[in-house]
Amino acid sequence: DEPSEWEKTELDQAQVEQRIKEYNSQINSNLFMSLNKDGSYTGFIKVQLKLVRPVSVPATKRVPSLQAGRPHPQGVKRRTSFYLPKGTVKHLHILSHTRASEVIDALLRKFTVIDNPRKFALFERSEKDEQ
């Protein structure tokens, strides 16, 4: 994991089309990328979750009150926290203009996580020769 300098390079239509063809030739599923007439593209990304802390979801059961027969006061919210299994994978349909924060929000919604999205980050991982 070496620091790298990010440069934003613009690709022309032919380069985008070539990269999409390369991507589609390398995947083993039906989750292809497709190029639209306006130059944008859509497709699926595979997100592998590697969380190091538990996530919170809304409680699924009503928790009994401490005193039998007395309901919880209005406004009390219950939540459950747990660790997601390492290596949990989710596929998301994205557009070429989808931002990283939108990907994080979509993943949290899919898992009904109620934690603040600012507590999460999205990283790109590349593999070459199984490394």
TrEMBL record:
Ras-associating domain residues: 76-131
InterPro entries (UniProt xref): FERM_domain (IPR000299), RA_dom (IPR000159), RASSF1-6 (IPR033614)
Pfam families registered for this protein in UniProt: RA
Transmembrane region(s): none
Gene Ontology cellular component list: microtubule cytoskeleton; nucleus
GO terms classed as biological process: Ras protein signal transduction
Coiled-coil annotated residue ranges, if any: none
Residue span, FERM domain: 78-131
PANTHER family, per the entry: RAS ASSOCIATION DOMAIN-CONTAINING PROTEIN 1, RASSF
Protein name: RASF1 protein
Name of the gene: Rassf1
